[in-house]
Amino acid sequence: xxxxxxxxxxxxxxxxxxxxxxxxxxxxxxxxxxxxxxxxxxxxxxxxxxxxxxxxxxxxxxxxxxxxxxxxxxxxxxxxxxxxxxxxxxxxxxxxxxxxxxxxxxxxxxxxxxxxxxxxxxxxxxxxxxxxxxxxxxxxxxxxxxxxxxxxxxxxxxxxxxxxxxxxxxxxxxxxxxxxxxxxxxxxxxxxxxxxxxxxxxxxxxxxxxxxxxxxxxxxxxxxxxxxxxxxxxxxxxxxxx
Amino acid sequence: xxxxxxxxxxxxxxxxxxxxxxxxxxxxxxxxxxxxxxxxxxxxxxxxxxxxxxxxxxxxxxxxxxxxxxxxxxxxxxxxxxxxxxxxxxxxxxxxxxxxxxxxxxxxxxxxxxxxxxxxxxxxxxxxxxxxxxxxxxxxxxxxxxxxxxxxxxxxxxxxxxxxxxxxxxxxxxxxxxxxxxxxxxxxxxxxxxxxxxxxxxxxxxxxxxxxxxxxxxxxxxxxxxxxxxxxxxxxxxxxxx
DNA sequence: ACACCGCATTAACACATGTTATCGTTCCGG
DNA sequence: CCGGAACGATAACATGTGTTAATGCGGTGT
Lengths: 242, 242
Known about the structure:
about 240 residues; alpha+beta; Arc Repressor Mutant, subunit A; 11 strands; DNA-binding
């Protein structure tokens, strides 16, 4: 089991520095590393879980669904994101979490949150930061789904995920980044049908703005893609990691 | 200026109990009460504010907008909700906040959050709870906007706001609750055009499910409305108030 | 080798929702 | 008292997006 002091995520450029004491404490709290296969349900909607997690490796997403099976993806989770934290610390999860790729989770006891707030205020603030940060991303998704055209949503999504993946250290030598979402996932994330998702994606491809095949996303013309999305980028803040 | 110990919101049935010490501390932190008129911008998008607030009286909403003016309402704020808290404690607000009615805000210094985490872990947890709870509501909005039909969204919204308003102690003797959203607001919240919002609302009216006039919402047939929304209600949790 | 299943692609068609326009009412400021 | 602005209602029309269906391809289990 990897000690947190040696966590490869800490080396990323946008990670906040922690003190050795903080790192040691976190590492002591770490209970296990759980592997999951792509497609696994990590937390089912409405389930309760003794643990909370940090995503160490791989991609996942949060979602909610309706009784008849329609599903909305709320947010894509990348390494460093917290999984399973919610307002009601000890009750049923209001959303599900599913793995997009093979995934490794660092597990902590749920009660750790109490001790963390009691004994490590600065870490508690970090945890709140992470949770609030994830929600900010969901706000952006809502803005897209509610008010942007399908084309704009798609461009937006690709720009954002390209950037997030790149800053998670996933950029490949040829400039592409891994992109494990199927068109079905994209549809559920953007609030579109799978067919229309394909139509819109084809348009972007034909215009040479993006290439997306075999799970690799390459952006041909980032400037143009941003123009389509009518989006200008804010600088990424430094983030904590628990 | 109202001392927090005497805050009328504390009397609501779904409020958590606080110790006298906690109440005294919060009350000492309270800096001012700010009034705002209906329609006022409380926090502009991208603005920075020295303070954070608790909504004491009135309705407000969080929103994000696009350069060309399209706007998405993220969430409706009712008394007891926290205003102006965000991940980047000291940076620009990623969303705006606007008053729907006359509003009164309790103001706190932003640094208070630091002291709160350092000296009052239990309150810090409450603050995190409130922030996460607000975001859960936004998740529900996203599910609606992304995956429900216009009709379902409308029914959903009315059921939820009816319930929230009622549990905030706003139910009138005739069974109605105040409903200060214009159809334009509803459209921005549900991701619809104003015209279509009106169409859908008329349908619900003609079926006798709701009445909505002069700022008062009355639900004629709650059971049927829930059926339209395909929604079954979870019990409301006990909430903290800062 | 075969059948099967998930995923991507495309076409034809249907329809929910958006757009533009007009009108009435109320309210407010000059 | 009048003019304008905000809001609500409705109609006619336009279109973006959903639905259904068929096809091909690659992987996987038997």
